[in-house]
Structure formats: structure tokens, C-alpha cells
Design goal:
Elements (H helix, E strand, L loop, with lengths): L4 E7 L5 E7 L12 H7 L6 H5 L8 E4 L2 E4 L7 H6 L4 E4 L7 H9 L3 E4 L14 H12 L6 E4 L5 H13 L4 H12 L5 H9 L24
Parallel strand pairs: 4-7, 5-6, 5-7
Antiparallel strand pairs: 1-2, 3-4
């Protein structure tokens, strides 16, 4: 079953009510994320396991909006899948060097890497650098960088903070923003992350286009 969306009503900070689309839980990966030939293969009990494994998405992979995706750290088993979404850029939110295998994948597919090293320190010592989140957000909303993948180690906290700030920029109310964050972070949800999102000021992005994202991209088949 594909990812469902539901309409919810919530009250924003100005006291007015707004209708927003709230994304359902991340698993399972929606079929619309997969090329048509992969979706057909998934429903075929006789499909070769090796063929199916060629199109394995990264941990916690999901659509954020048109041209923007999120996930945990991709490994070589995920490369064939990532080719189908024709990435142009990757935002990497960890301080560790990118692995050689991943760098080679980016080079061979013409993908640009934007690294914003944010330590994954746990509460109560979490320190989320606002400057890096702002820089990463500017990269994420620049359509010249799309299609774009945002990832950290597991696609939960650092990725969740950046996506949460993007949702605020898109004028989601906090109820929906926190609901999405918690669906990915689950039992490991952090109060400091949600507090950071709540206090994040998007007013400096007023000059950026605030149009509603278009429907998801059509995936391409790779040879």
C-alpha cells in the first residue's frame, strides 16, 4: 500500500486554523517511489531475489516534497535504487568523511555533495548549529540542486531537524511538523530537536519562493 496522506486541522501560533497534509508513517516504502518495472516485480512471487535486491532503498527513505528526498546513510546496496531517482545533489549532515565507495558513486553519476558536519551528540548535551542548518536549508530549497537527497546516519535526528525547518518554511503548523519528526525518530525522539525546530526563525527566507511543491517526479529506468 502506498504512502497515505490525510488532511488535518490545527491551530497555528496566530490562533487561526489551517488545513495541512500530514505524511503517514515512513515504512513501508511507497510504490510510487519505485520505477514501474520494480513495482511490478515486487508483486511477482517468482521474481528473482537478486533482481529485487538491486533496487533496495536506503534506511528510512521517503519523499519530502517534489525533488527532495530523505534517508539514512546509503550503502553500496542502495546505489542502483538511487540511480532511478536521478539525483543531482546530496546533503550530508555528518562530520565524518564520506566513504570512498560513495564518493565514486557520486562522481560516476554526476552528483554534487554538500556536507554540513553536525555532531550526533545525544541529550542533554546536544548542540544543533543553527548556522549549518540554515546553509543546508538554502541548498535544499534551491531547485537547481534537485533532485536532492538529505541524509545523516539513520535519517532520524539531524535529517529530522532539517526537514522540520523546511516544513516551517512551507508553513506547516507545529503539530504536523512534530508528528512527522516523531514518526521517523520513534522512541528516540529528542525534545531538544523539537525545541530547535519550534524556535527556528524562517523570516530570513522570505525572499525565497513559497509555491506549493509539484507532484512527485517520475522515476527513470536505469540500464
Amino acid at each position: 500500500m502506498g504512502m497515505e496522506e490525510e488532511e488535518e486541522q490545527c491551530r497555528n501560533t496566530n490562533g487561526c486554523r489551517c488545513g495541512l497534509m500530514r505524511a503517514a508513517a515512513p515504512p513501508p516504502i511507497p510504490k510510487l517511489l519505485l520505477p514501474s518495472f520494480c513495482s511490478e516485480a515486487i508483486g511477482n512471487e517468482n521474481v528473482d531475489e537478486k533482481a529485487a535486491a538491486l533496487f533496495t532503498p536506503p534506511l528510512n527513505f521517503a519523499i519530502v516534497e517534489n525533488g527532495v528526498f530523505r534517508s539514512g546513510f546509503p550503502d553500496p546496496d542502495n546505489f542502483s535504487f538511487l540511480r532511478t531517482i536521478a539525483l543531482r545533489s546530496i546533503i550530508y549532515l555528518c562530520p565524518e568523511p564520506y566513504p570512498d565507495a560513495n564518493l565514486q558513486f557520486l562522481k560516476s553519476n554526476g552528483i554534487q555533495l554538500f556536507q554540513f558536519g553536525i555532531d550526533g551528540t545525544k541529550e542533554p548535551f546536544a548542540n544543533i548549529p543553527e548556522g549549518k542548518i540554515r546553509e543546508a536549508l538554502r541548498v535544499a530549497i534551491d531547485v537547481n540542486n534537485h533532485p536532492l537527497l538529505i541524509h545523516c546516519k539513520r535519517g532520524k535526528h539531524r535529517t529530522g531537524c532539517l526537514v522540520g525547518c523546511l516544513r516551517k518554511l512551507r508553513r506547516w503548523c507545529l503539530t504536523s511538523v512534530f508528528d512527522e519528526y516523531q514518526r521517523f525518530a520513534a522512541a528516540k525522539s529528542r525534545v531538544c530537536d523539537q525545541r530547535f525546530i519550534e524556535l527556528f526563525d524562517v523570516s530570513s527566507f522570505n525572499n525565497y519562493c513559497m509555491t506549493t511543491p509539484k507532484p512527485p517526479l517520475t522515476m527513470r529506468r536505469c540500464s
